[in-house]
Amino acid sequence: MPATFIQPEFRVKIDYDKCHKCGRCVQQCGWGVYDFNERPVPHDEKCRACHRCVTFCPAHCITIERNPLAYRENDNWSAPLRKAVWKQAETGGVLLTSMGNPQPYPRIFDHLLLDACQVTNPSIDPLREPMELRTYLGRKPDAVQVEPDGAGGYRLAEDGGMSRNIELATPIVFSPMSYGSVSLNVHKSLAMAAERCGILMNTGEGGLHEDLYPYQDHVIVQVASGRFGVGPDYLKRGAAIEIKIGQGAKPGIGGHLPGEKINKEVSSTRMIPQGTDAISPAPHHDIYSIEDLRQLIYALKEASGYKPVGVKIAAVHNVAAIASGIVRAGADYIYLDGFRGGTGAAPAVIRDHVGIPVEIAVAVVDQRLREEGIRNHASIVAAGSIRSSADVAKAIALGADVVAIGTAALIALGCHVCQSCHTGSCSWGITTQKPELTRRIDPEWGAERVSNLVHAWSHELQEILGALGVNAIESLRGSRERLRSIGLDEQTNRILGVKPAGM
Amino acid sequence: MASTVIEGYRQVAPHVRTEGDAIVFDANGVYYRQLNDAIRQAVEAGARRIIIENANGQRYIGAGLQVKDLAIEVRGTAGNDLAAFMDGPSIEVFGNAQDGVGNTMASGKVVIHGDAGDVLGYGMRGGRVFVRGDVGYRVGIHMKAYESLVPVVVCGGKARDFFGEYMAGGMLVLLGMNTQFPDDPIAGGFLGSGMHGGVIYLRGAVEPWQCGKEVGIAEASDADIAALTPVLKDYCDSLGLDIDEVLSAPFTRIAPVSHRPYGKMYAYL
Questions:
Q1: Which residue of B has its CA nearest to A9?
Q2: pLDDT at residue A97 tops 60
Q3: Which of B81, B86, B197 sits opposite A276 (nearest CB)?
Q4: Are B196 and A272 within 8 A, CB to CB?
Q5: A-to-B residue pairs, Cβ atoms closer than 8 angstroms
Q6: Which partner from A8, A366, A471, B104 sits 20 to 30 angstroms from A457, CA to CA?
Q7: Is A96 within 8 Å of B269 (Cβ atoms)?
């Protein structure tokens, strides 16, 4: 009997005429693809096509190809399906995977176009005119608050009732990615970049490492069901606190960091013993109703001196009603994570088949909150595969205040989207805790690259705003009139509140 | 803030007086936010003994307080999330407490002379919670230990379902003594389900069907009793109970069979 039916997905080819036999590919590969026997010898079955070796080969003599007929062609029983069946026949396990949903579902963002202005509302040149990207995360007052000016009149109250808002220089934050799922150097890169860009990073549910304390004004601290790393100090350090109910990549599924990834440092940050499973199941067992959620929101406010508290949920059906309840429960922002959102580890069947797109969720939540007259009570953060500044602009035009980027930030750090984060062997040093791999990310270098990305997208957003003839990102929020759809059905257009192109 | 009524409580500062070295707040009909504001201000001003009279369900008493030598006495019924995220103080409740006592509490001590509700000690990280009477559902869920932080919860009465679910550390003790429900089993179903750390001691016995499949059930050994005795001594001292009576019945030890209950559940793609 063969040990496995699963054939290598990729073929690693080395042009030995060019090879320097320097062994760098052997050192660089986190998956152990290469042996060295006078020259590098690849084991194709271990390759994840992460391209670390290809990138670092000084002789450019490595190519990685798809193994052409590893699986006989069949449009119904695709190669990934057959691989999954064989894997489960061998192991009996739930198939675990990572990164975002790769399935070829329609991408609504790609069916929306921003509609430019020309004459009626002339465009603006962002190179010369001031262009405002600043926005604020948090509850806005129902009315502007004023106070007596001492001379018989009134003036705007010192903060106009906005004191609990967090200023963002650009409408982008980093998605929650826990220390444990990513390395400490990734966390440092994101924290430093958040400070430089005037935005926020998010701890995820893995606690706040003390090396991030200097950046705490730019950190959202997350509270998930497992309460990892959560203590009064943690709550008081964050600029805001986020209750994680759900995640786009795995709605209704909790977090689970396997014991083998709980090394000494992760253990101290999460405040759990080394080597035990970090299980953070859904749901929170103290939240079985909106009233329970309200209780936790206010417990966190009481414990933190009334910091803003947000609630993160996965985009699922009925999300508008859920969001309304969350806002009425006192959340200062609501984080909507669509079904393409990334993850460090999720059952493949959940990641690929559960949830709805963030485009729909943002549109219906914004619409519902407006109808109920409570849109100003909370900000909306949209996430779940925001891939470019165009996606940012479209999400905001559909009703978001801010977008969160996770995978894009990791790609800036070198991620090649090989979808193998759950193995903990990331050759790029991102989703691993192995010291020989984590040191591949220098936080200073990482912060520079991520900051560059945010700055580049911000400049592009200014260009987009200029083309639309508006000079502030907040003027674009919920402005569906600036969008037109192509190739979407009538019902989807109605749900999005977007007209088809030509109208 | 204007004196408005919310959820039946007045949004006004509580009436304050001093009694020896204690600051006494009259919580009668006062909304939780004003009461807790007043407590925090008193603590900031140096108060180390606080008495809350006429407590009638105010939430979040002691939430997030981080003063080691502070003692709070609650006369009446403490509301939900008593001592949530608390780190240091001791709270004594002469009455009952509602749900969520000691939610993610880091250290300190809570003594409840009456009964307590659901989700007692959720995610608790350290310190001690002692309840004289019965407790509700989902007590001790996600309790976890780390180095010197080892939480201890002792419940004198009986418990409902999901006692110690997902427990990852610490000690959870159920005595089944001071109960309103003498005919009920000592605990409900799903005891210790998903448990992967820590230990549960019961004064009495449970049937295997009441427990999660992740735990092993055994008679407490001499070593277990040696570990329990100082905890129960503190419990009895705190509540004025007789330790010899508490120790006069056999104890059952419930502990997880694995620290990795889901270690073999997944196959990596």
A1: B269
A2: yes
A3: B197
A4: no
A5: 146
A6: A366
A7: yes
Residue with tokens 């009694």: B19
Cα dist from A176 to A200, A357, A428, B29, B143, whole Å = 10, 18, 19, 41, 24
Q: Which residue of chain B comes nearest to A273, CA vs CA?
A: B146
Longest dimension (CA), chain B: 68
CA A47, CA A423: separation in Å to the nearest integer?
A: 13
pLDDT digits (tens, 9 = 90+) for A402-411: 999 999 999 9
* Residue B138 touches partner A, C-beta closer than 8 Å: yes
Q: Which two tokens stand for residue A202?
A: 């998010």
Closest partner residue to A276 (CB to CB) among B84, B141, B168 is B168
Closest residue to A271, CB basis, from B146, B259, B262: B146
- Find chain A residues with C-beta within 8 A of B146's C-beta: 267-268, 271-273
Yes or no, beta carbons of A277 and B138 under 8 Å apart: no
pLDDT recorded at residue A457: 98
- Check B169 against A272: CB less than 8 A apart: yes
Distance in angstroms (rounded) separating the CA atoms of residues A336 and A465: 24
C-beta of residue A375 within 8 angstroms of C-beta of residue A93: no
Q: What is the mean pLDDT of chain B?
A: 95
Distance CA B192, CA B185 (A): 15
For residue A165, the one-letter residue type is N
Is residue A310 predicted with pLDDT exceeding 60? yes
Tokens of B96: 């009952």
Q: pLDDT (tens digit, 9 = 90+) per residue, B219-250?
A: 999 999 999 999 999 999 999 999 999 999 99
Q: Select the residue of B59, B260, B266 nearest A94 (Cβ to Cβ).
A: B266
The answer to whether residue B64 neighbours chain A at the CB level (below 8 Å) is yes
CB contact under 8 A, B269 and A97: yes
Residue partners of A346: CB distance under 8 A and separation at least 6: A96, A97, A98, A249, A250, A253
Residues from chain B contacting residue A279 (CB–CB below 8 Å): 166, 168, 194, 196, 261-262
Provide, as residue numbers in chain A, all residues whose Cβ is less than 8 Å from the Cβ of B122.
227, 285-286
Please answer yes or no on whether A227 and B122 come within 8 Å at the CB atom: yes
Q: Could you give the angle at the alpha carbon of A181 between the alpha carbons of A180 and A184, nearest 5°?
A: 55
From first CA to last CA, the distance across chain A in angstroms is: 64
Residues of A in contact with B197 (CB under 8 A): 273, 276
pLDDT of residue A161: 64
How does pLDDT run across A53-85, given as a tens digit for each residue?
999 999 999 999 999 888 889 999 999 999 999
The answer on pLDDT for B1 being more than 50 is no
Exposed (0-12), middle (13-18) or buried (19+): which is A490, by Cβ within 10 Å?
exposed
How would you classify the pairing of strands A172-174 and A402-405? parallel
CA R_g for chain A: 24
Under 8 Å between Cβ of B138 and B164: no
Report the 10 Å Cβ neighbour count for A149. 10
Q: Is B90 on the interface with A (CB under 8 A)?
A: no
Percent of chain B with pLDDT over 90: 93
pLDDT (tens digit, 9 = 90+) per residue, A422-474?
999 999 999 999 999 999 999 999 999 999 999 999 999 999 999 999 999 99
Q: Hey, what are A271's tokens? A: 């405040």
Min Cα separation B180/chain A (Å)? 24
If phi > 0 it is left, if psi is from -120 to 50 it is alpha, else beta; for residue A73 that is beta
Residues B123, B173: Cα–Cα separation, whole Å: 16
Name the minimum distance, in Å, from the CA of B99 to any CA of chain A: 9
Nearest CA in chain A to B41: A305
Residue environment code for A404-423, b if the CB has 16+ CB neighbours within 10 A, otherwise e:
bbbbbbbbbbbbbbbbbbbb
Amino acid at B71: A
